[in-house]
Amino acid sequence: CINLTGSCLLKNIIIIIIITQCQCTFLSCSRRRKAGILPSLEDLLFYSIAEGQERIPAHKFITALKATGLRTGDPRLKECMDMLKVTLKSTSDGVMLDRHLFKNIFMVSSLMDGVIMLTTNCVLQSLGDTKVPFCLQSCVKPLKYAIAVHDHGTEYVHRFIGKEPSGLRFNKLFLDEDDKPHNPMVNAGAIVCTSLIKQGASNAEKFDYMMSFLKMMAGNEYVGFSNATFQSERESGDRNFAIGYYLKEKKCFPDGTDMTAVLDLYFQLCSIEVTCESASVMAATLANGGFCPITGERVLSPESVRDTLSLMHSCGMYDFSGQFAFHVGLPAKSGVAGGILLVVPNVMGVMCWSPPLDKLGNSVRGIQFCTDLVSLFNFHNYDNLRHFAKKHDPRREGGEQRVKSVINLLFAAYTGDVSALRRFALSSMDMEQRDYDSRTALHVAAAEGHIEVVRFLLEACKVNPGPKDRWGNMPIDEATHFGHHEVLALLQEYNNKYNPPVNTDADKESTEKNLDGMLET
């Protein structure tokens, strides 16, 4: 959970975590805005940073973005940053932004929704050398398999590749009883899987296809290629050539396959470069059911994601796969470059990178991080069994969380904390939610005489000025009873001009579902 005030992170190695529920928040915030439930998001964001001032230094805006975990180089903020540079050059103030200039920076509505999305569930947090490129190596195997299943379907792919852990070293010359590679996570299976990519095309076309597909999975983050690694892999690839000829002898490839061309492409795909940032988005795409959490686009079919995660869980960590499934219980794939691609389904994607390896070829610190992660959070597949030791579950936000949400909202109104209310509004909280007496934040603020809170709720959040509590009292009655005349005048003014938003039945139903979803996720 993260907001504009900061974050709480569990990290002890180079890691990036992307929470993957952003798409729902993005869509729901967008619809709520169209439905008139939220006010101008530009104003809300500006005032949450400006703290009541009409002008802020540009560097303060940048600092506030970085404090949420955002990077100025984030592709989702590219247009914002470009517009900021243009705006600062064209204004005599040079380094100051007022509210109107701030709105000009966020001219694209989807970008504003993106900022809301990033301050709730989809904030990218990093630690360490997260921008250093490294080769995917074996971490590309599940991605390659997912693309093959996406293109051809499970049945076709598994005519050539099995689904079982091999129990042997990843580079053994050994097939199952049907003369097929055991699974796509060992070298033999990955080589056969490579032969299924864009069959009939040239190697150049296949490589371009894979690069563009991986870039879609990475939300257009960095995906490169190391020619030096490719040359080294090809020159020292005798074992893989031996596996290739063995597969050819056993007729494991589709008809008409050029085995040497397949091996060339195999070495090329292992030499694809990523950073922790871009690879974590790929992992998050798998965690998000095939939707890229940054772009919101469907990249992979549900079938391909399901099958990929299943095989990552059973076969993804070389000869340590059984131990990893036992102790961590999450889908993962390691590579000899020191990367571990970890997926927490429906929650987040993680990329750990730490080059020191153990005797099985897995990152030592990466394994330790994954173990520590599930020791604190109940991400293990079977941590949710009854009578099991209780761990923190960040995915669960049931009745207790809804109660906590109401308490936080009403307490902020009681204490006159407008900054907290701005943060709640930016995080898509329902500003009209009620306690057990059907009292709203507006009731509490009116009773306490906090005119700034009342003004914020009415002007910025566009809340209903006349809700009734269980005794039939409205906020205007509270202001009258406690003698807060300025609050009373403000409420009367808004009561006279308030028009409830008129939505179509479809919009109303969609809005209600989105509100329920945001309270439960």
Automatic annotation (TrEMBL):
Known partners and oligomeric status: Homotetramer.
State the EC number(s): 3.5.1.2
Q: Which UniProt keywords apply?
A: ANK repeat, Hydrolase, Repeat
Read off the NCBIfam families from this record. Gln_ase (TIGR03814)
Q: Which residues form the Glutaminase EF-hand domain?
A: 42-105
Q: Which domain of life is it from?
A: Eukaryota
Instruction: Please give the name of this protein.
Output: glutaminase
Family, according to the entry, reads as follows: Belongs to the glutaminase family.
| A GO MF term | glutaminase activity
The ANK repeats are at: 437-459
* Keyword check for Repeat: yes
Q: Name one Pfam family in it.
A: EF-hand_14
Name of the gene this protein is made from: glsb
Q: Where is this region: Disordered?
A: 499-521
